[in-house]
Design goal:
The protein has 208 residues and is of the alpha/beta class. It has two domains: 122 residues; 66 residues, no CATH class.
């Protein structure tokens, strides 16, 4: 099947990177660079508020060595690794000084998502379920419903990647089990072999 857009629904940066590499697209969207649970994706879509998402008083920093390893936003089930400047592999201790930039970037990605609401768009949404997450059929169903509510004019198709190839109503299942820690990009051949079985293409701008 041919699609006009590819949107990663997480759960990690590897997911988005491997999808973009395989399908030959460059565009990124809201969930490409976060660590986020399936219920977290749903909560962000239901409460589309960049100020609450980056409310410093409700965020939790995790210190390691001389910097911040990551920052959690428990309200939404989001873990930020890439939204603030880094010194080496660690975020700066002054990450709060960069909240405005993080908000601006996220607001831009939210607007990109909104602009997908067009009758000419056929969108492939892909969610990778981590091994630590118990898949919830009601949450997966609500997630589809929330996306369709936000993009009523677009045609939406959903793929669910999991280590065991779990099935869920309305989701095309795909088994990919890539637990490698290094490199962060994972096993390219494993991902390409799995994604190729779907038989999908994402069209370039000239072909839409």
């Amino acid at each position: 099947m041919d699609f006009t857009r590819l949107v990663s629904l997480g759960f990690r940066c590897r997911t988005g990177f491997r999808l973009r590499q395989h399908f030959g697209v460059a565009e990124t969207y809201l969930f490409d660079w976060w660590i986020i649970s399936t219920s977290g994706v749903l909560e962000v879509l239901k409460d589309w508020d960049v100020d609450r998402l980056f409310d410093a008083d409700s965020m939790e920093e995790f210190l390691t060595g001389d910097g911040v390893g990551w920052i959690d936003q428990p309200r939404y089930g989001v873990r930020f690794f890439h939204d603030f400047p880094k010194v080496g592999k660690l975020m700066t201790l002054q990450w709060r000084d960069h909240l405005a930039n993080a908000k601006s970037r996220t607001a831009h990605l939210m607007e990109k998502f909104r602009r997908l609401n067009s009758p000419g768009e056929r969108i492939l949404f892909v969610r990778e379920a981590p091994v630590w997450e118990t898949l919830s059929p009601p949450v997966l169903e609500q997630l589809q419903g929330e996306i369709r509510r936000a993009l009523p004019q677009a045609e939406c198709h959903f793929v669910l990647i999991s280590p065991e190839g779990a099935a869920a109503d309305g989701w095309e299942p795909l088994k990919i089990d890539d637990p490698a820690q290094e490199p962060w990009t994972g096993d390219e051949q494993l991902w390409d072999a799995g994604l190729a079985t779907l038989g999908h293409r994402v069209l370039g701008a000239a072909d839409r």
